Every structure is written in structure tokens, then in C-alpha cells.
Amino acid sequence: MTTLRLNATDLSRTVLHAGPAALVELAMAAQRLVLADVPTHLIAWRARTRAALRPDMRPYLDLCRTPYLLPDFLTPPRFDGGLASLVDQVAGTPDEVLAAELSPLVESGALPARVAPLAAGEAAARARLRAAMLAFHGVALAPYWTEVETAVRADRAVRGHVLAGGGLDRVLRDLSPYLAWAETGESYALSYRCAVADDIELTPGGRGLTLVPCHLAPQPFLLADPTGPLVLVYPIRPGPEHLRSRAPLADLLGRTRAAVLAATAEAPGTSQLARRVGVSAATASEHAATLRAAGLITTRRAGASVRHCLTPLGEQLLRAGGPAEAGPG
User: Fold this and answer.
1) CA torsion, points 66, 69, 73, 79, in degrees to nearest 10?
2) What are the start-end ranges of the H helices in 62-122?
3) Cys staple from 324: which of 89, 153, 182, 250, with CB 3.0 to 4.6 Å?
4) What are the tens digits of pLDDT across the range 33-87?
């Protein structure tokens, strides 16, 4: 059992992340390919993803091959920025961290010998890892990102209603069937059964707690962050439908333009839009202009910047057939 011992200060600094964490969902997608059991709503997704795997994805999948055990550097506790910048952070992990996390696993045989160049921090191995992450994302997450994002944001909305009506105690008590919440005198305990370790207790000591909902996680787990708040990833309750790709809108608008349309749901500025979709600001502006001319979005000035917003027509189109390849931000 892993138990978080929280005090009143921790509770006052407990926050719920707004959307899905791209690198967490990516790592959990890789784990779902090797776990023995798969929930009903992910059966078709796993079959499609396995069929689409290629050798160039191996440098990443090698690192995720052990069920319930991932090198910490693959899921840094950073959630802002586009996919490319997040992957760059992983590929740029310091040499000493790579050696500490990977070398023992290579030496023990838990990871194959071909991981050794990455453990040594070789530039070519870092480049292969970066390319592998992007390639795997392209088949495992990109076609399904709209549904993942919708499900995670819906979970957060539910938590918001619970918070307003019942307070943080109720939110944590009902957060997940995998988590147990209890008051223990002047402190509070949030516990879950860990698949790889028993009887671990962690005390944030006032650093707080960040809760990260995850569509693909099989169980709760903690992200390593020795200086910031504890980060607890928890699996959201699955919806009634299978995870599936929504291709029609991407076929109509094109992959990038469909992603731009999806990204305007949160009224971003042009630079935010570019980071979210993973394109340059000029490209984002061009796509926004095309969507604006079609009556799917509007652009409004907010001080020195602008905000791109969905029109009712754009919202209706987005709901009718979500973009097939929208990337995370």
C-alpha cells in the first residue's frame, strides 16, 4: 500500500490538473500494450495500435516493456507546452539521470542491451528516442486525442461540481475506486495499492498535491518531483464507448486544420494555438484565417493579443466529427 500523509497545508495546496498530460498518456499507452488485462473500452484500440507498431518505435517501447514500472524521466512533472517541447525535455534528460535510471536495469537484464547507448547519454540514442516517441504518439494517441481530452476534461468538470457541493474532502473520497481517503487525527491519508511495492509512506510536508486525471492509466501512481508538489496520476472512470478514432473531420479539413479547429475550443491566442498543435505561429495564423473565412471560428482582440474562438457552426462541426489527429498541448 502506498500512502500519502497530508496535512492541512497540503490540502490547501491541492489542485486538479485541467487536461490530459501528454507524456503520461503516452507512457500509459505503451504500458497498456504489455499488460495482460485490458478493459473492454480499450480492446479495439489496443488491437489497432499493436497492428500499427513499427521498428522505429522500439527505443521508446523498450523502456516501457515492464508492467507497472517506468523510468521516471519518461514522465517529468511538467504539463505545459506542445508535444515536441515535452519530448525534447525527455530526450534532453541529463546524462547522470539516464545512467542512474537505466544502467541498473540494463545490467540486470530488465532492459535489453540495446538500451545501453541511451543509458550512456549518446546523442544518436537520444535522437532515436525522440523519434520513437513521436512515431508511437502518431499511432497510439494522435488519432484518439479528442476523445482522450474530452473524457479527461469531463472528469475534471465532475470534480469541480463535487468540490462546489461537498468540498475537497468529498472530491478526494470519491476520486477513484483505486484510492482510499481517510482522516487520521490531525493529518489525512490518501492510499492506493501499488503493483510493484508495499507499505510506502510519503509526506509532502506542505508542498501540496497535484492530481492528474488519466484516460489510459491502469492504476494510480506518483510522478517523481523532489522539489515541487507531489503529483498523483489517477485513472478516470471509463465512458460507455470504445476508444476510437474520429477521422471524418480530418478527412474534410486536413489533419492540421482539424487540430487547429479543436484547439480553439479553449479560446487560445495565436502562439498558444501554435504550441498546442505543434506548428509555427505563422502556420497557425494561416489555418485560423481559413477557418475564420469559413465561419468556423472568430478572432477577437484581447488587449495586445488576440483570441481565437469557435463559432456555433464550428462547435457543431467539431462535435459531429472530432479531429482525427489533434495533438496535445
Assistant:
1) 110
2) 83-91, 95-108, 116-119
3) 250
4) 999 888 888 999 999 999 999 999 999 999 999 988 899 999 998 888 789 999 9
- Residue 14, beta-bridge partner list: 209
Q: Please tell me the pTM assigned to this model.
A: 0.73
Which whole-number Å values give the CA distances from 84 to 43, 92, 93, 256, in the listed order? 28, 12, 14, 15
Residue 148 has a CB neighbour count (10 Å cut-off) of: 22
| Residue 100: how many other CB atoms lie within 10 Å | 14
Residue 251, Cβ density class (10 Å: 0-12 exposed, 13-18 middle, ≥19 buried): exposed
**What's the CA gap between 89 and 292, in Å, rounded?**
34
Q: What are phi and psi of 30, to 5 degrees?
A: -65, -40
Cβ within 8 Å of residue 22, ≥6 positions away: 79, 83, 86, 137, 141, 327, 328, 329
First-last CA distance in the chain: 33
Over 80: is that where the pLDDT of 247 sits? Answer: no
- 70 contacts 64 by C-beta, under 8 angstroms: yes
* Sequence-distant (≥ 6) Cβ neighbours of residue 56 within 8 angstroms: 128, 131, 132, 135
Predicted confidence (pLDDT) per residue in 307-328, tens digit = 888 887 887 777 665 443 334 4
The answer to whether 229 touches 209, Cβ cutoff 8 Å, is yes
CA–CA separation, 292 vs 67, rounded Å?
46
Please report the beta strands in 242-319, taking only residues with DSSP state E, as ranges in sequence order.
297-302, 305-310
3-state secondary structure of 210: strand
Higher pLDDT: 99 or 304? It is 99
